[in-house]
Amino acid sequence: MKVNTIYLDNSATTKPYQEVMQTFMAVNEQYYANPASIHAMGVESNALLMRAREQVADILKTEAKNVLFTSGGTESNNTAILGLARANTHKGKHVLTTEIEHLSVLESVKQLEKEGFEIDYLRVNKQGVISLDELRAKIRKDTILVSMMHVNNEMGAIQPIFEAAAIVHAESRAAFHVDAVQSFGKLPLTFKGEDGPDCITISGHKIHGFKGSGVLAFRKQMQWQPYALGGGQEFGLRSGTVAVPQAVALAKAARMAVETMNDRSNNYRNWQQQLRTALAHFGDMVHIISTPACAAHILSFSVRDIKGEVLINALQKHGVIVSTSSACSSKQTKTSHVVEALNIDEHFKKGVIRVSFGAHVTSDDIAQLIQVINTVLKELKGERL
Ligand SMILES: Cc1ncc(COP(=O)(O)O)c(C=O)c1O
């Protein structure tokens, strides 16, 4: 029997929107000239690139000259952290981040540490949220950079980034970088208002755009050191021929993400609630890691003494695709740094499963998911059906 595939691993990556694929094809067909070329075709592709930049700037409420197109969340995070820290050593060498950041942030700050920077990590509580008091205690006059994710990729915890920004700006001259890879298009986030991020990372493939595309955007022009050196494209800040089709496709995906945000969020919230109710029937056999305050599109849970891979394979046999808590580290056997930070009971540490919704998921998919979870968990519990 062929089972329908229900893809619920949208925090790992999403299926591109049909419209985004059409845009990408059309731009590749017609506007393939190098946007740095001075002939008419180059001027046309540059105009298209500039329009894409303006569209992203408009969404984020900044100016087009503050939007850079990159190869994705990893490059944007690396560039923001290494670039901002290395260019501001005259103000200090202290950097703050949290212990549950994505590895593209954690590895960047580790690199800074090797270069003589001092790194401090904010801890999180069992809900995965930092303490503003700890931030107040750890921020210093010589802190030059604070990097904090908006939504955690493994369990959906939302950080109080606007309150955090107010503290950072009041207590230091630090730049406040927000990794919004998991929140853009799911929660409101712009540069509007006094207190908010100074710098935002977005990834195309998490918003039904393409893998290998991203944005690094700034509130205003800032001092930072580029790390891709060469022809001086992207205002001299990221060398390399700009991938115009990716940029235009990303702008399209970003617009669609923002336009559909409210409807999708309502769906995600309802589906998350349905899933919570279904899991609650299994009592202390299941531990739901994501709290109701977490982002609506992610629900992480764990089954007592069951390995994540076992559960993933069992669900997959019924056509349901989910992942262990994070796709980047899912092939590693050690417990993830996020699960460790949450201080989860030993019985639930090995089997954290992440269900993540996206724009192509339907209510029927969720009904089927719940049926499959019931079947699989009852089997695991050793009950006869
Ligand atoms: C929170 C977060 N930051 C950064 C990244 C890296 O983004 P990319 O895959 O575009 O390099 C990811 C990807 O999973 C993520 O979830």
TrEMBL record:
Residues 6-369 form the Aminotransferase class V domain. Its cofactor is pyridoxal 5'-phosphate. InterPro entries: Aminotrans_V_dom, Cysteine_dSase, PyrdxlP-dep_Trfase, PyrdxlP-dep_Trfase_major, PyrdxlP-dep_Trfase_small. It holds the Pfam family Aminotran_5. Its EC number is 2.8.1.7. It is an enzyme of class 2 (transferase). This is Cysteine desulfurase IscS. It comes from Lysinibacillus sphaericus.
